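Checklist before submission:
- one chain only
- standard amino acids only
- sequence pasted in full

Submission:
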Amino acid sequence: MTMMIRTLLSGSATAVALVGASPLLAQEDVPVSPTVTAEIAAPPADLAGLEPGPEIEGTITARRGERVQITSPGDVRTLILVGEGTVVRARGGFLGLDRRSFDADSLVNGLPVMVETVRWGDALVARRVNVRNTDLRTATMIRDGTAQGFAEQTAATEALRSRVANIDQYNIRGTTNVYFDTGRYQLTPQAQAELCNAAVQAQGIDNALLLVVGYTDEVGSEEFNQELSEKRAGRVVNHLQQRCRWAPYRMLTPTGMSESDPAADNSTPEGRAQNRRVSVSILVSKAVDGM
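Returned file contents:
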């Protein structure tokens, strides 16, 4: 599940509005609402026969035992219960291939989810929770810390996270585009160098975050192009983090936008070549820009 990103064009200026939570915000100790702290009995292990409830899509913003709070766009908060009868399923990365099962302990703060529920009295119980492997790895890494530098987070980083909480307005301080051959998602040596140059540029900007968005031309089916745009974005994120040493907690959730927002005319070979791209934007929250 990718986070929804709307790109709004006004003249030469581009404003990016983010709906939902980013990996950056997932690190925070989110205050648990009173509904999450209320005493609720553990849900039954056998959910068969219970009335189906609504499907809920959003981000886990609080967790206490079997009680999980999911925040959907519009700051709609829903309390669900997880237990022995809850199945957590993850799609394999940006390829969407292998699917693996996890237990409910995998449901950590900051994780985007799609939840199928059933009704148990006045409560909603998660029957099935669908996540992406990439989102799960990122959210778990942010929670626990990894060898990629989370254990070395400084007081300045903690202060930054608290200042940008719930801020969804950003200034764009620069954008780098890297390009791909038709149907491919491998990075050329030139693209690899350009990405690291972009990371170096961003490192020199206080409070900078990186937003990675993948695109395709109009060749191929819509389903194929959606997967291809996600694979391209995933390859760029991996290179930025593993080769360019960009800290994952300074990365907003990557997304694939398929054929949308073309940079050029898709009716010409030259235009299609410009549309087969991944855009890496350097963002700084308006709340902290210049601080």
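Reviewer check: Helices lie at 34-37, 133-144, 155-164, 189-203, 222-242, 269-275.
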